[in-house]
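ugh ok so i messed up the first submission bc i forgot one of the chains. this is the corrected input, ALL of the components this time, i swear. 327 residues overall. if the numbers dont match what u have on ur side tell me asap before i send this to the collaborators (the ones from the other lab, u know who)
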Amino acid sequence: MFMLRESLLLLIAVAIVSGCVPPQIPREALQLSQASQAVRKLQSRRFETKEEQKLLGAGAAVLQEMGFTIDGREAELGLIAGSKKQSAYNVGEIAASAAVAIVTTALQIPQSMPFSREQWVRASVVTRSGEEGTNIVVRVTLQRVVWDTEDKAAKSELLKDPETYQVFFDKLSKAVSLEAHE
Amino acid sequence: MSSNPAVRFRDIGARLLIIAVLSGCQYRARDFVEVPENQFKTRGAQSRAFATTDREKMLRSIIATLQDVGFIVDHADHALGSVGGTKLDHYALKMTVTVLPRGTTQLLVRASARYNVTPVLDPDPYQKFFAALSRAMSLEAQQAD
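and heres the new structure output, hopefully the right one now
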């Protein structure tokens, strides 16, 4: 009995102390990886022009056209940053949530499964001179935080869907009347 | 109080536990103005000197490096020599990098990161960031202290 109590006290103490210890940064968080190169390729296009400011301005206009609000810009360093909030409803998730509710209610153990409701998408457009000095490379980066129906951040991630980036570059290419090269 | 040492030990343990529960993880007011001792140790890891005076190239390389390691660049200020970004990967990592002249032939780059709400004091992530920046600049990152 005494041993049991002591063990319980020790367990509670460990739980309290561990609750005060901050979580550690993942080891690879600031490391270049094999995937970095592939992601860079996905996010970048080369334009045969020397007019960096014109490209940057067009990039800001495309972001606005896609519903983003421009939050910051630094023309001297070739940066535009923007963000937008939009719906994150997904038919598959809603159907799965409804299925869980129906099945668990039938089994008399009613449960609800949250599904994605809203997302905050952030974008940055960065321009720089290409290696030859005769072209400009544009790199756009997109991230999102998705909130579910229980107001919890269900996802926070870098977008890696090629189609999303392609849509941006198609619009940019059209805006500056120049071809976007991979 | 019992004379049994085991019981006394248990009572003391229980009291200490109550104090721990009541005080929780609260901070004292002076915690906000004191510089943690281990931050002095981290400062060396957060800074590197580069043998260049091309400030714009350095700032643009910092932006490119942050993008390469998965950040979105939130802000950049040429006049202040500052760049900031956020990485989201099931966690939020915020990073601010500043560039200052160091003598007449070098630039000093200082980085500070915050993992969720906790300042990053571990030197290893900074080492990896400066290795990537060094590669982008094609210059060696030298210890600043």
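quick check: The first helix of chain B runs from residue 5 to 23. that seems consistent at least. Helices of chain B lie at 5-23, 37-46, 55-68, 123-137.
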